[in-house]
Write the structure tokens for this entry.
Amino acid sequence: MRHLIDPMDLSVQEIDDLLDLADDIIAHKEKYAKVCEGKKLATLFFEPSTRTRLSFEAAMMELGGNVLGFSSSDSSSSSKGESVADTVKVVSCYADIIAMRHPKEGAPLLASMKSDSPIINAGDGGHNHPTQTLTDLLTIRREKGRLNNITIGFCGDLKFGRTVHSLIKALSRYDNIHYVMISPEELEIPKYIKEEVFEKEGITYDQVRTIDEVIDKLDILYMTRVQRERFFNEADYIRLKDTYILDMPKLKSAKEDLSILHPLPRVNEIAVEVDDDPRACYFRQALNGKYVRMALIMKMLEID
Ligand code: NCD
């Protein structure tokens, strides 16, 4: 039985195959309407979510399967003190596949050791978010037609942003990716990403403090929200939360075919006026998330 805990659990070939399947699902939705009949997906969300949980559920429904689960730890027995291990052990008797989000790094990995059904990590603390990475890769490939030869800028909370960590890891296996890290000093990417991904793979990257100094060079700008829930004190969050606001004047010197991505939810970091610019891809990205999760559910349930 396979689980998906870290984006590196999938080989490059498997990722490319998943993206191909997602493209085919988009082109021929009707072909897939019944492939998961009789199967159940459980969504165990110990932390808030809109897109990830609902796109997982919509994905399973569009494959003809059923869904069950909870959307906060308050409405599960974890509020009575049940361990993640026990919850998962039980739910894996009810469901064929489980998507789980938890505020603690490593919780889905622990769950995978106890579960009788495949576990998909739907976000663990500030650590990983592999299905957002699949969403991002599908979006980049559909927007740009390639996953290599790209200059990508990551902007905002690179310290706590799990989507950033997972996407960097996944992209490190494609050729000629040039990384530009745009953040305040306090929100730089964690040391372990610098060491275990960049240094280990011999990848160089630029580190800057403003969008303006690099925007004209980027093929992709990956904006992120400052992750309030991971800060130790509110004063630091308030000081840093509006460091970057992407608006139309900032886009003046950007390439005409720049793709602006954001995992969402957005707070203030992208002005609403940018939404109407064709370079804004984030709502298409959210839709891609459903299709790539359909592909992933099929793969993990070994459905042809
Ligand atoms: C992201 C997450 O949960 O990490 N959202 C998502 O899944 N689309 C990003 C965020 O919460 O800022």
Observations:
- The CA atoms of residues 63 and 193 lie 36 Å apart.
- The chain is about 35% helix and 15% strand.
- The chain has a mean pLDDT of 97.
